[in-house]
Design goal:
367 residues; alpha+beta; 3-stranded mixed β-sheet; two-stranded antiparallel ribbon; 39% helix; Heterokaryon incompatibility domain-containing protein
């Protein structure tokens, strides 16, 4: 996953993908020697001859990584991909996948394509169709490997890396060559499966724990997983979220982000004076919703009388005027840099106070 650009200051998710390929050479998949479809038969025959001690699970993972990882890369870029090129040794001497070298491989491949204005458009379309068929076949095989039961702890990591690589190649083909319905379908098929409601980890979404540690809401993660590809989710997973006082433990069961909701039973208004006991002034939410349902724009008119009493009233705002005069109002959100400074509030203008919570619009008053 080292080939995926991240946000400034973010770090790669700590997932180490083991190299399980066992082959007679450093090239587990030889371009031109075996057709992509017939490769599994040749590879399994080689494993039985060279490594007769391998069990079914080792053979399964070796085939998956050799065929769908190195094989897809080789066929996509039309050049042999050495297992040493895309791996590194850790402190224990074990070899793990490292994809930083893909930057150069991708650049050289793009440079080899003819320019679009010089008759290259048709050639790129043909290459795009070839890549689309390749990725569709690899995705079909990947889905079947996913359905195979194995207790090997490396299996989820290997399959996860294959999914990420297929997504990366699909995005590359769409950008460098041309978007096609086949590539769009492949991206849709490679989306993550959302986690179950019981908070268990029975999912192929290996970034789950990492995103939770980075402050992401599980409900929000499930929603994002249905919208974005694996490469996009890695980018998002690397970005730490703002820590909240309220946890996200009940968000999946509740069907919304509870950490972003206000618990009115425990809510305490913020005041300048410590220990303030003034009454909490608010408006009925139904009044606001009624105006919205009628297609009107509700505003909160906040007024302080000469005696110091504070009142809030829901008024209707016209797109152009209110009572024959231009509409002036303050728009207040939950974005910290945009929040209205209550110390500077002097009244006069209505307030449009909007809170967006996971797709639900809410309205609140200033305490």
């Amino acid at each position: 996953m080292d080939h995926i650009p991240l946000a400034d200051g973010a770090r790669q998710p700590a997932l180490s993908i083991p190299l399980v390929v066992k082959s007679a050479s450093d090239y587990p998949y030889g371009h031109g020697e075996d057709d992509f479809i017939s490769f599994p038969e040749h590879h399994l025959r080689e494993l039985r001859l060279i490594h007769p001690e391998l069990g079914p699970e080792d053979a399964l993972l070796s085939l998956a990584q050799s065929w769908l990882y190195f094989g897809t890369l080789t066929e996509f870029f039309q050049q042999p991909i050495s297992s040493n090129t895309l791996t590194r040794l850790n402190h224990s001497g074990d070899r793990f996948i490292c994809t930083s070298a893909l930057h150069e491989i991708r650049s050289l491949w793009i440079a080899s394509l003819p320019p679009r204005p010089v008759g290259g458009a048709g050639f790129r379309r043909r290459v795009g169709r070839r890549c689309g068929v390749l990725l569709a076949r690899a995705t079909w095989a990947y889905e079947h490997f996913q359905g195979m039961v194995t207790e090997d702890p490396r299996a989820r990591l290997v399959m996860f890396s294959i999914k990420v690589m297929l997504c990366s190649l699909c995005h590359t083909a769409r950008v460098v060559l041309c978007p096609t319905p086949t590539l769009d379908t492949v991206l849709a098929r490679l989306s993550f499966r959302p986690a179950p409601v019981d908070d268990s980890t029975a999912t192929d979404f290996l970034l789950w724990d990492y995103m939770v540690q980075n402050g992401w809401c599980p409900y929000q993660m499930n929603h994002l997983a249905t919208l974005h590809s694996a490469t996009s989710m890695i980018y998002l997973a690397s970005i730490p979220r703002m820590k909240r006082n309220i946890g996200h433990e009940n968000c999946l069961r509740a069907g919304c982000c509870k950490a972003s909701q206000i618990d009115w039973a425990a809510f305490e208004s913020l005041h300048v004076a410590v220990g303030c006991t003034c009454e909490h002034v608010l408006v009925d939410e139904q009044q606001i919703m009624a105006k919205l349902e009628d297609g009107q724009i509700p505003l909160l008119s906040c007024m302080r009388s000469t005696s110091g009493d504070f009142s809030i009233e829901v008024i209707q705002a016209d797109i152009h005027t209110v009572f024959g005069t231009p509409t002036f109002y303050y728009a207040v959100s939950h974005v910290r840099l945009l929040q209205y400074d209550q110390k500077s509030f002097q009244g006069g203008r209505p307030i449009l106070f909007i809170v967006l919570r996971m797709g639900r619009w809410s309205w609140e008053s200033i305490g």
